[in-house]
Amino acid sequence: MKKILFAALCLLFVTPCLRAQNIVIPEGYELVDSLVYSPMSAIDTSIHGQSIYAAMPEGVIVSQPDGVHNALSSQLSKNASRQFNGWRIRIFFDNSQTARGDSERTEMRFKGMYPGYATYRTFDNPYFKVTVGNFRTKADASAALRYIKNDFPSAFVVRERFRYPALDSDSYTVDTVKIIRKKVQ
Prior knowledge:
single chain; alpha+beta; Alpha-Beta Plaits; 4-stranded antiparallel β-sheet; two-stranded antiparallel ribbon; 30% strand; flat
């Protein structure tokens, strides 16, 4: 009896979800993925650089040995410039005579098309390179690569060491949505 009730409840909740997936696309239109850039919340900078204990509300008392406080402070200062292995997307890699100008144009084109990603243009003798993004996992980089490859077909994921950037007011989260648009003839 419990199994039948459970199955009935599942059908009750799953059926509307399945119906919502049946999208009718009018003639002359197509369903495409689109990126949505949402600004990230600003960080409360009033506590930046302060001890966590100084930021606690009134009435909160932390009782601990001085060694714990000293160890925490030491660890924070040691890790301030620590780098880790992360992932970026290389959109340009060339060593031709025009590579410097081409890398600048590629970087500017990318910034115009994808404003939510950080860009890095480097020269590693003899190559000019343009890499984008700061991804903690390869899966995140690969997901972004699927969209970037539409405009930069030779793009690929690379592993790099970098300090993860602090969040700031120019940071964006990127999400995908399906939109209906007129087919391009």
